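Provenance and format

Records in this collection were gathered into a single text stream. Each protein contributes a sequence line and a C-alpha cell line. The two records reproduced below are adjacent in the stream.
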Amino acid sequence: MDSTVVGVSSPGSWHTYRAWITKVSATDVDIHYYVDGQWKAVHHARGFVGKPMLLIINLQMEGSSGSPGPSASTSYRARNVYVGRSRA
C-alpha cells in the first residue's frame, strides 16, 4: 500500500470518516477514504482478499504527525463507530 497524508480542517471539531472497500480481483481490493463526505484518497491493497480486517482507532502522538508531539494534556474522542457490510 502507498502512503498518503490527508489534512483535516478544524481538527478539534467532529468529523465523519469513511473507508469503502471494493474487491477488484480474486486477491486485491481498493480502499477509498472519505472525510466529511468528500473523497480524499485510495489505496490499492494487494493480497487483502480473505484476510481479517483490523480496525484501530487511536491518537497518533509522534512519527508522521510531528515530533516531539503535544506538550500539554491531549484527549481523543470517537463516537458512533459503525462497521457494516453490504452485498450487491
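Adjacent record:
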Amino acid sequence: MSDFKLAASTRTAFGKGAARQARRDGQVPAVIYSQGSAATHILLDGHETFLTVKNHRTSLISLDLDGDIKTVIIKDVQRDPIGRVIEHIDFISVERGDTTIVEVPVVLIGEPEPGTQTTLELLKISVEADVSVLPEHVEVSVDGLTAGTVLHVKDAVLPAGQKITNDPEQVLLVVNEVHNNEDDADASAE
C-alpha cells in the first residue's frame, strides 16, 4: 500500500458558518483524533482531498500540518447527499505497527456457472490488520460456483496478518439458478 500526502492547515474558525465559508473557499473541514490527546481541527484542499479519498479509504495518509507530518487513516467521510462534495472528514492518528479495524467492500471475481447469478449478502466486511497493510477491498472468487452454493464469511481468504472480525457463520453470498421468463410462461400455459 502506498502513502498519500495532503497539505493541511490549522482551523481557527468553528461553527456552521465557518465550515460553509471554508467549503465555498474550496476547503474541507476535518478533525484528527489521537489517543490520549485533544482533537486537532484542520482544513484541507477540497480537490486534492476528493482525489485522495475517492478510492483509497483505507490507505495511510501523511498530513503536512503546518510543517508537522502526521500519519492518519480515514475514520469517517461526510458527503453532501446530492453532490459529490466532501463536507467533513474524521481522521485517526496512527503509527506504523498499530492495528485497527476497518470496513472494506467485498469484490467478486470470476464467473459462476452459466445459468446462475450471485447475490452478495454483505457489501462490506470488517478487517483487522496492521495500519500499513490495510486492504482496499476483500476479493471473493465465485469462479465456477454452482446453483445452491452458499459462502460464509469464514470462506473469504485474506493475506497473512489480516483477520476478518465479522461472525464467521454469517452468509457472505448465495449462488442461485436464473429462471428464464419464457420457461415460466410455458409452464403456466400447460
